[in-house]
Input
Amino acid sequence: MQLCKKLQDKKNKEVMLVISYPLIANPRAEKIVRSLSKRFKVLILEWNREGIVFQAISLENVSIRRFNMRAPYGKLTLIFYYPVFWMWVAVNVLLTRPGIIHACNLDALIPCVFSKILTRSKLIFDSFDKFSLAFVPPKMKLLFKLVDLTENVLTKVSNAFITTSNDRLITWGKYLPKYTITLFNAPDDVSKFIVDNKSKLLKNVHDEFAIVYAGRISRDRGLILLKTAIRGLEGVRLVLAGRIVDDSVRKEMRDSKIHYCGLLPYEDALRIQAYADVIPILYDPAVPINRFANPSKLFEAMMLRVPVITNVCRDIVAETECGLIVDYDAKEVRKAILQLKSNPSLRKKLGENGRRAFIQKYNWDFMEKRLLWLYYQLM
Output
């Protein structure tokens, strides 16, 4: 209560959140903005790379400025676009002089570090993904070291640091600033709005054992492995939903036991997960960033009382007993599927364990308190 009152007194302080793509593309960033808007005026600087026409933002105390220049995602040519975006950010920071700058990821942090020096604003670096691990191929060792050192040093000169898991903190070593927190990508508790009647999107699943994956359709998310694992299993169906990042994976996933629902709004994606028998969370460890994965799907499964089969977040899954831990191996995944399929009481127990843990500490209300505490320390 005392914290809330002190933050309310500082509501006239403006926060600037900088992100290099549309805010609506990242639910975690949206939740951060919504939480901050309860105590501060929030100005969002975002890069509209796809030239989308957006509706006006409807949150009180929140305004938005968009950098409307088309640019690719995940391509080397992006480096030619960044300087223009950085100059635009720097000019907006200098004109606005916010109390706190909240930079999302390294590509938003770079212009904010230099602007911070000129405006004396406080700077928070919020790392959704560590760029050296997520985007630099392991074989490019020199580039990896350069990007990693840059990210570490700029983290150290920030006033505060946020990342998505305790595992990822380890990768920063000695470069962490005084104020450092983890904000798990946990959802709001919307289960009572989601679990109503069975989703029409699952009409083709009938009474089969439903394995539901809602996320990006790419090669490193264990989808080909799942296809192999369910081959020949009677009464098992794999349901997919999400953005197709790798079209070759979509073609390989054409199978009578696999149903693709398309790219769904967030609530519909939750709705089909709510009626899953199990949610798979499988990340290829050959991709460095995947070894530190802390996906929102885990916390969504907890919220929805659905057990998981996963090779990541092992500490959390072991602590909460909300699912089965496997290696990234089709035989192990198949064994786990059969174990859950043949044992409904185990599925229910794991699901209830997850729900209990979600209520206790893996929900966004809990994360919001951490976020506001950090802001109070800086203000």
Remarks:
- Residues 191-360 form a domain with the Rossmann fold fold (CATH 3.40.50.2000).
- The chain has a mean pLDDT of 88.
- The chain has two domains: 2-186+363-378, 191-360.
